[in-house]
Amino acid sequence: MPLAALTLVVGLGLLPFAPLLSLKASIVMRFQLQRVAARNSQGSFGTAAPGLVLGLAGTALLIGVIELPASLTRYGLQLATSESVETRAYAIRFLRTWGSKDYLLRACYDRSGRATDLAGYLFSLQDPVTTSEAKQIYYRVTGETFDTTLSPKRMGGRFIPRETVNFDDNHGGTKIGSKLEGLSLSSSRLDASVDADGGVGYMEWTLSFQNDSAIQREARTEVQLPPGGIVSRLTLWVNGEEREAAFAGRSSATSSTKCRANV
User: Fold this and answer.
1) For the segment 125-160, what is each residue's pLDDT rounded down to a tens digit?
2) Both 58 and 134 in a single domain?
3) Domains in the chain: how many in total?
4) β-bridge partners, 185
5) Do 144 and 81 share a structural domain?
6) 70-108: string of b/e by CB count within 10 Å (b at 16+)?
7) Rounded-to-integer distance, Cα 1 and Cα 60, Å
8) Which terminal CB of the chain, N or C, has fewer other CB atoms within 10 Å?
9) Do the Cβ atoms of 59 and 92 come closer than 8 Å?
10) Could you give the C-alpha distances from 249 to 86, 226, 234, in angstroms and in order?
11) Quick check: 121 and 129 in contact, CB under 8 A?
């Protein structure tokens, strides 16, 4: 409360006092309801026991309906991590029918937040599903990887603008992160030459990325190389000028190569 009082000095309003003011309002309403109950007969008063039970039941039903997609999805996620093959297969079918794709996508991120529904909260306490497991389950349910879809706008119960927060936790790392709003592949061109007699071939792949967001984005791509293929050169076009770029050594680039560029 002393810290909350400082907000009055700087003009931030009474929001930090909401818990105290709510408690005071509840106490006042308690006495007012007792006075109303004393003036009315027990059978006609709306706050009698049957009315209270009905009100609580209606509230619980409304909250349950709102949180039902999340609860069903979290239940399916728990089943999908079972050691039983039959249970995992049933969980995938269950999630395809009753699961929410949005909640599945949130589970693939570290910032998904704690479950707000009671059933989901109990599931997360018992044996939480890791983001790595959620990504695999998401692919099995939807047939697409989580990074082909834009990250959810709501994380942990909060709406976060995608332009101000980068949800790519692998920024600057070695993994291909999630799809980012405002960043896209505008063009792709392949130029190749093959010497059939010599049994060699050379190919150039030109990728052009477009960044329409207000902040700098990191463009990455993963190229699967054929057996025996190596990367011999990598260049970046910066302001219309081609520049030499660094890439991993031969031992790291024989199976696949990850390229990173800021745009």
Assistant:
1) 666 788 889 989 999 999 888 877 776 766 555 555
2) yes
3) 2
4) 209
5) yes
6) bbbbbbbbbbbbeeeeeeeeebbebbeeebbeebbbbbb
7) 32
8) N
9) no
10) 44, 17, 12
11) no
